[in-house]
Amino acid sequence: MTRNKRKTREALTIHPRNKYAENPPDFALLASLYPSFQPFVFLHPRPRIEWTDFNATRELTRVLLLHDHGLNWWIPDGQLCPTVPNRSNYIHWLEDLLSSDIIANTNSDRGCVRGFDIGTGANCIYPLLGASLLGWSFVGTDVTDVALEWAETNVKSNPHVSELVEIRKVDSTSNTLSTELHDGVAVNSESKNSDDMDGRAVGPPSPSSSLTETVYLEKRYHGPPILLDVVKDGEKFDFCMCNPPFFASMDEAGLNPKTSCGGTLQEMVCPGGERAFISRMIEDSTVLKQTFRWYTSMIGKKSNLSFLISKLWKVGVTVVKTTEFVQGQTSRWGLAWSFMPAARKIISTHVTNKSVLSFMLEGLLPRVNAMSILQSIEHFLSTGGASCKLNTSSFTVDITASEDHCQAILKNGAYQVDKGAGCVTVKESESQPSNNLCFRVSVFQQIPGTLLVKGSLHHSSSASAGMFSLIFHRLEEFLKAESCREKVS
């Protein structure tokens, strides 16, 4: 990726209210103002730091928090060192969720926002930023004595926000909620009917989805409590947030040689990686339900989104929302869900604007060709109730689907959500013809063994148009699982 392309991509994904959206950190200026930062800055051919040097990344975080946010901050060697622009994105995304009318604001405490940071770490970055930027109050939790001690130190070093942040120790010996494997799906052993808690009929996952779930749930989360037994009786929060252990092992955590942000075993690793950890969060949320307006987590691998979103629909959430956080060449994704009643049906305008989408099918299995793919498309969409008109001469399928049909397609197994904060609710409503989603899917022969599948939205102004991206990505996942030599990894 060229430098210009990288800058363009980052500009499109950094939050517009992020302090660094228009003014990235000026390393040369910071070096001139803070002598302790000077040794880590190379001025030629352009100002930069060595990202593989933990001391350099830690000092950059320190001076950014001090210079731009008035926060005194430090962490000892080996602890996870956060990047300020990326963490600020998460805070501003939460601000968007809380200020939106997707779900009703039931907070009666005069608008005082209360957050819950799961695994706040020694850096305590989210409570410090949320308190200093927006005046939010926080409970930050952690397990290790080092993390708790330094989080407390960082809070006390900033008396102007210290009253807004509580650091809470998690009892690492308590583990009351076990997530077990049941028919390839993680379920709450204390509530085996959690997949139908709101009384909705949930369609069975596709075979490929069940296989994927089985593979990824062989290692299940058995660590300290995450939300249950940590949230106190009667407490209410506007949101929880989490930077989960992304990896299943330290070997996996060390795969990126281009950065060095530190991180202890507890911060970086848990059996089953982030899938297992966030699956436990989801299970906890099915018990706590409306204790939080929004449950959220950062995700390190985009491939995990479809698995986790599928699981969320199965446990009866009302809303799912996603976004992407980008800093340099590093991407992270945000996942949010709620059990609150949906205030209204809403589709992200960013998703709605995408009226043409496409993907490649490579490494096709024997006897798979353009015609069989066309028939698979028709079968997949008509199973959800959509009307499909197949044209074998032009290799196209014209689809008309009501909002209820779209929901049925999305709920029948795992699906992938576009990075632009796609959001749908599952609240039933009477479908009107003007709300129908109409689009065409075309199949084109490329080089031998490769097909191009293209989707074109007919009426981008319809109320259901925002579901086009969601359904098309779900179709992509289905076709690749059914037709390509693609290993589950």
UniProtKB/TrEMBL annotation:
<dbReference type="GO" id="GO:0005634">
    <property type="term" value="C:nucleus"/>
</dbReference>
<comment type="similarity">
    <text>Belongs to the methyltransferase superfamily. METTL16/RlmF family.</text>
</comment>
<dbReference type="InterPro" id="IPR010286">
    <property type="entry name" value="METTL16/RlmF"/>
</dbReference>
<dbReference type="GO" id="GO:0008168">
    <property type="term" value="F:methyltransferase activity"/>
</dbReference>
<dbReference type="InterPro" id="IPR029063">
    <property type="entry name" value="SAM-dependent_MTases_sf"/>
</dbReference>
<feature type="binding site">
    <location>
        <position position="243"/>
    </location>
    <ligand>
        <name>S-adenosyl-L-methionine</name>
    </ligand>
</feature>
<protein>
    <recommendedName>
        <fullName>U6 small nuclear RNA (adenine-(43)-N(6))-methyltransferase</fullName>
        <ecNumber>2.1.1.-</ecNumber>
    </recommendedName>
</protein>
<keyword id="KW-0808">Transferase</keyword>
<keyword id="KW-0489">Methyltransferase</keyword>
<dbReference type="InterPro" id="IPR017182">
    <property type="entry name" value="METTL16/PsiM"/>
</dbReference>
<keyword id="KW-0949">S-adenosyl-L-methionine</keyword>
<dbReference type="Pfam" id="PF05971">
    <property type="entry name" value="Methyltransf_10"/>
</dbReference>
<dbReference type="GO" id="GO:0070475">
    <property type="term" value="P:rRNA base methylation"/>
</dbReference>
<feature type="binding site">
    <location>
        <position position="142"/>
    </location>
    <ligand>
        <name>S-adenosyl-L-methionine</name>
    </ligand>
</feature>
<feature type="binding site">
    <location>
        <position position="119"/>
    </location>
    <ligand>
        <name>S-adenosyl-L-methionine</name>
    </ligand>
</feature>
<feature type="binding site">
    <location>
        <position position="87"/>
    </location>
    <ligand>
        <name>S-adenosyl-L-methionine</name>
    </ligand>
</feature>
<feature type="region of interest" description="Disordered">
    <location>
        <begin position="186"/>
        <end position="210"/>
    </location>
</feature>
